[in-house]
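Let's sit down with a protein and look at its sequence and fold side by side. Go ahead whenever you are ready, and we will take it from there.
>
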Amino acid sequence: MAWNTPGSSNSGGSSGRPPRRGPGGRNLDALLDPLRGLFGDGSGGNILRWVAIVVGLWLVFNCFVLITEQQRGVVLRFGQFARVMQPGPHFKLPWPIERVTKINATQIKTFSENVPVLTADENIVLVEINVQYRVSDPQMYLFGTRDGDAMLAQAALSTVREQVGRSTLDTVLGARNALAVSARDQLQKSLAAYRTGLAVTELNLPNARPPEEVKPAFDDVNSAQQDKDRLISEARAYAAQVVPEARGQAARVRTVAEGYKTASIARAQGDADRFSLLVDQYQAAPEVTRKRLWLETVQEVLADNRKIVGGDSRQLLYVPMEPAKGGSTPGNLLSPETLAPAVTAIEQAAEQSTRSGRTPRPTGREEVTR
């Protein structure tokens, strides 16, 4: 039974019940009468009422959009891009005016592949590629290209082939970190040029190996290369040990030779100066110089030779000298006759220096004794 049917208990006049009053004494039944008339009478009014409720709820839920922290909402108005919704609650116009596509912008996606690549030195190597990426621009990801993920896969394979193709096999096997860095930069530039809206977070080349068909030959080459490196290292270690020792010995010999040279020159210069001074002293006082030379010579001989004392208290001095032409032996006694030739040579040199007015230079070291 409708609310406004006469005689109904819901009617405010014919039932005899007093009208309901609201705050301020207003008649609530009078206020609800227009709403009751909106739904009409009978079962048709009930249907319209429920349709209106459903439509209202649909509008409320369709216009309200909740974007989580991991998502970004791309709003299309009549199929054209309008705006990007950030995380939080939002309202939009009902469908079909505006439509929201939610994109997970923080999810890290992964692409992995093993690809055969020809290196710069014409060797084939299997390179493992691992790319991690995410959506950086939701609008560009949806409308910049048809399939951004497939575009990234193709661009990653092309970039790695280009970088590895410019490098040698040794570089690919032993220095892949530098290749991975350059490949990541190049891949990011390619994705920006293709308008994919994707950002590469990491690109790695974790493994590189030769094909199975040539693996035994490749292992032999690696073994030979390792032997070569080992022998080179041992040779360098040996050179590092031997060369410093040889240089040290050469420096020592050179230093000894320099010292011997300096000492020999100084000794010869001193002997020459001494002989010149002896000549001058002999010219000034022949007898005194003669006696002094004899005493110095006897002192040197006695210091370097042994003395034998005979039973008659005589001291015999043995001088170890080479035999002379006259048949004398090293055991001859030191006498003035044996020293006479040396004294005569000094006297002749002094007389010649006096006549010529210059000091003669000796040809060797001479010791005079008396």
Q: What stands out?
A: The chain is about 50% helix and 20% strand. The CA atoms of residues 9 and 17 lie 8 Å apart. The longest strand covers residues 124-135.
